[in-house]
TrEMBL record:
<dbReference type="InterPro" id="IPR057326">
    <property type="entry name" value="KR_dom"/>
</dbReference>
<keyword id="KW-0560">Oxidoreductase</keyword>
<protein>
    <submittedName>
        <fullName>SDR family oxidoreductase</fullName>
    </submittedName>
</protein>
<comment type="similarity">
    <text>Belongs to the short-chain dehydrogenases/reductases (SDR) family.</text>
</comment>
<dbReference type="GO" id="GO:0016491">
    <property type="term" value="F:oxidoreductase activity"/>
</dbReference>
<dbReference type="InterPro" id="IPR036291">
    <property type="entry name" value="NAD(P)-bd_dom_sf"/>
</dbReference>
<dbReference type="Pfam" id="PF13561">
    <property type="entry name" value="adh_short_C2"/>
</dbReference>
<dbReference type="InterPro" id="IPR020904">
    <property type="entry name" value="Sc_DH/Rdtase_CS"/>
</dbReference>
<feature type="domain" description="Ketoreductase">
    <location>
        <begin position="12"/>
        <end position="166"/>
    </location>
</feature>
<dbReference type="InterPro" id="IPR002347">
    <property type="entry name" value="SDR_fam"/>
</dbReference>
């Protein structure tokens, strides 16, 4: 059951939204890698989710695929019910699903605004609210973790760094920033740790086009000189979920190669 190694998640169950690709996939793999049973949420691609489940099982772990659109309340509730039914009470929930619909402000449609807010921010609310309800219902399990539950949001450097032509996305991540901190303040006394990870530029499908067109420009924004891999974020998610990070409450861990250092201000600015 529980390990004496505080970085392990043996005996714990985790749910990761948007886990059939990119950062969510890497987070699911990393959580399974330290012993968690993992529910791999996907919206529309069961083959990709099954592939993630297969990879986890091949490595000796336990995982299931669960379909749900995180912007729909009934689907989120059903996703949690199915995950707990199959894996047992959840100890870790990672709200990762996200989309971009970029446009200049004069050309941004209300549909594009609403779609991004619905998935990135309302989805985070729906998933976070149900995670907290489920942690409360489960009760403390000090044999597996010091915390009652661990809720992690996938935010972005753009909760801090403005992003022209992406105002819907930046607004959604700015919203996650205070959703996370306010929730953390509300539930910390119950033993629930709420935190975020804020990636910089990570090589995934969400930015494949931008990377193809502007890879060199993007690198000038990263003092550390490389675009991140999904695994760079997955490892942080697994650590944040573990008792090794037990005293981290209401924080955003920026994992961005220094992007949020505003490298344009080196020298004379
Ligand atoms: P991705 O496109 O590979 O992953 C996004 C996932 O979310 C996909 O699996 C997609 O199917 C899923 N998804 C989209 N809408 C959904 C919905 N309504 N319900 C359920 N799932 C849904 O891209 P990614 O980069 O891995 O993105 C994951 C998260 O990381 C997002 O929240 C994104 O904003 C954030 N992020 C990414 C970067 C980056 O550079 N890649 C940087 C900062 C933050």
């Amino acid at each position: 059951m529980a390990s004496t190694d505080p970085t392990r998640l043996d005996g714990q169950a985790a749910l990761v939204t948007g886990a059939s690709s990119g950062i969510g996939r890497a987070s699911a793999m990393a959580l399974a890698g330290v012993g968690a049973r993992v529910a791999v949420n996907y919206r529309g691609s069961p083959e990709q989710a099954d592939e993630v489940v297969g990879e986890i099982e091949k490595a000796g772990g336990r995982a299931i695929a669960v379909q749900a659109d995180v912007s729909k309340e009934d689907e989120v509730l059903a996703m949690f019910a199915e995950a707990e039914d199959k894996l047992g009470p959840l100890d870790v929930v990672v709200s990762n699903a996200g989309i971009q619909k970029d446009a200049k402000i004069g050309e941004m449609s209300l549909d594009d605004w609403n779609a991004v807010i619905a998935v990135n921010l309302t989805g985070a609310f729906l998933v976070g609210r149900e995670a907290i309800r489920r942690f409360r219902a489960k009760g403390r399990r000090p044999d597996v973790s010091r915390a009652l539950g661990k809720l992690i949001f996938d935010s972005s450097v753009h909760q801090l760094v403005p992003w022209a032509f992406h105002v819907n996305y930046a607004a959604s991540k700015g919203g996650i920033h205070l959703l996370m901190r306010s929730l953390a303040q509300e539930v910390a006394e119950e033993g629930i740790r709420v935190n975020s990870v804020a990636p910089g530029a990570i090589a995934t499908a969400i930015n494949a086009e931008e990377r193809q067109d502007n890879a060199d420009d993007i690198k000038t924004l990263i003092p550390y000189g490389r675009i991140g891999d999904p695994e760079d974020i997955g490892r942080i998610v697994a650590w944040l979920a573990s008792d090794a990070a037990d005293y981290i409450v209401g924080q955003t861990i920026f994992a961005d190669g220094g992007m949020s250092l505003y490298p344009g201000f080196r020298g004379n600015g």
